[in-house]
Design brief:
alpha/beta; three-stranded parallel sheet; 77 residues; 3 helices
């Protein structure tokens, strides 16, 4: 099992919202931290992602310290 999942909103076949929704339906993935890494920056989009089960959210472009901070937040370190 992964310690965490990083995904984008825009992916082929299934978008990130669909994926995290399906993940949260599975008992094994209910508590897996999910970081949405995307260009989608509207308040409504961020709210939709959080309601779908995303643990945290970062908008592209971002720098390495920002990504490190977000990963540490979702892992609780």
């Amino acid at each position: 099992m992964p310690d965490a999942v990083l995904l984008d909103w825009n992916m082929p076949v299934m978008n990130g919202i669909e994926l995290v929704t399906k993940m949260r339906e599975k008992p094994a993935f209910k508590a897996t931290p999910v970081l949405m890494v995307t260009t989608m920056a509207e308040k409504e989009q961020i709210l939709q992602a959080m309601q779908a089960g995303v643990t945290n959210y970062v908008v592209k472009p971002f720098d390495a310290p920002t990504l490190k901070k977000k990963i540490e937040q979702i892992l609780g370190v």
